[in-house]
Amino acid sequence: MTGLLTDPYGRRVDYLRLSVTDRCDLRCFYCLPTDYRGADEPEEWLSFAELERLVGAFIALGVRRVRLTGGEPLTRKGLPDLAGALARIPGLLDLSLSTNAVGLVRHAHALRSAGIRRINVSLDSLRAERFKRITHGNLDKVLAGLMAAKTADFAPVKINMVVMKGINDDEVEDLVAFCIEHDFTLRLIETMPVGDTGRNATSHYIDLGEIRARLEAQFDLLPGVMPGGGPAHYVQVAGTNLRIGFITPISQHFCATCNRVRLTADGTLYLCLGQDHRFEFRPLLRSGISDQDLQDAVQHAITLKPERHEFIEQPGQLVRFMAQTGG
Ligand SMILES: C[S@@+](CC[C@H](N)C(=O)[O-])C[C@H]1O[C@@H](n2cnc3c(N)ncnc32)[C@H](O)[C@@H]1O
Ligand code: SF4
User: From ligand 2's centre to the CA of 225, what distance in Å?
Assistant: First the structure.
């Protein structure tokens, strides 16, 4: 059975982002408040067996790509075991990971062996002091994690940089040089008003059109494509292998082609990053639902997907943090 997940707006859903924890060992100021401890008790989280079963139902209905995210997915104990179990589900074509890289020195090889091929790493600054101000973390650890990812042969390695005016917008060119040097892909992201933290950070919002114009004045940017590139508009820097993706949910939203839904650690499916439409799977999983009824529930949940986010019209509406939904 394939292609059974089509929403009321005719969009085929074939991509699931799975937030395996809402906790994180960093505190990026635009994402999580410093005193955040995790809204959910771990007992409420779905077990690996429950996650495997639920993700299996999505795959049976046509999902082909799964990304592990969070919070910080590497803080969930045994993540390589979950990755291995998901990678073995017939029908899944692509398993990837979004991480802050803090734990990659320890886990990169196990995750690669488990079947994760592609990896996205958050990196907003290459200056240790500034990195600490933004994330409360240690830049050296993250850089060591990135090099471990390179050694473990993840391909591509994509760097996610949230570009913020007066915070790190003067560093885009440095990130470009860094990505050329290491053969990484660069993805520039606009700040989104998700949770109080995200909303406060939008005072630093910058339209990536401005950054693109700045880069065009310095580099020859050719139209680029990126397999599995998602919502980013890619360009290629002439004379290099570097691709730069612009993720512009605010200045140029891409809802019309949205193909994804987000599942949280407690079994809640969010149908849109910028809306509250959701469906709870945990009660069903824990009341002995049959495989067929579980697939029916997944199909029903997809009918709840809203047409588009309303970040601009209703910037105050999302109280959950990005780390809860899974970025
Ligand atoms: C929530 S994190 C989860 C995975 C992992 N911890 C990481 O940082 O890559 C996923 C992505 O969301 C981005 N993000 C978090 N809050 C954001 C916000 N308010 N606006 C734009 N991007 C945000 C992060 O920069 C990161 O690239
Ligand atoms: S963006 Fe990622 S690393 Fe930063 S606080 Fe959020 S979940 Fe943690």
Answer: 27
Which residues have C-beta within 8 Å of that of residue 206, sequence separation ≥ 6? 163, 164, 165, 169, 190, 191
| Angle formed by the axes of helices 172-182 and 208-216, nearest 10° | 70
pLDDT (tens digit, 9 = 90+) per residue, 238-249?
999 999 999 998
Give 300's Cβ-side CA count (13 Å radius): 9
Question: In terms of DSSP bridges, do strands 260-263 and 268-270 run parallel, antiparallel, or are they unpaired?
Answer: antiparallel
Number of CB atoms found within 10 A of residue 252's CB? 14
- Report pTM: 0.94
pLDDT in tens, 301-311: 999 998 888 77
Question: Rounded to the nearest 10 degrees, how much is the dihedral formed by the CA atoms of 37, 73, 139, 171?
Answer: -100
Q: Which ligand is nearest to the CA of 20?
A: 1
Cα of 236 vs centre of ligand 1, distance in Å, is 24
Q: Which ligand is nearest to the CA of 119?
A: 1
Instruction: Give residue 207 CA to ligand 1 midpoint distance, Å.
Output: 17
Q: pLDDT tens-digit profile of 256-286?
A: 889 999 999 999 999 998 888 999 999 999 9
* Preceding amide of 156 cis, omega within 30: yes
Give the CA distances from residue 107 to residues 24, 50, 282, in Å, rounded to whole numbers and listed in that order. 16, 23, 29
DSSP alpha helices (H): ranges in the chain? 48-60, 79-87, 104-114, 128-135, 139-151, 172-182, 195-201, 208-216, 282-285, 291-302, 322-325
Task: Give whole-number Cα distances, 69 to 44, 95, 215, 224, 225, in Å.
Answer: 18, 11, 30, 26, 24
Closest CA to 230 of 178, 278, 187: 187
Please state, in angstroms and rounded to a whole number, the distance separating the CA atoms of residues 325 and 327. 6
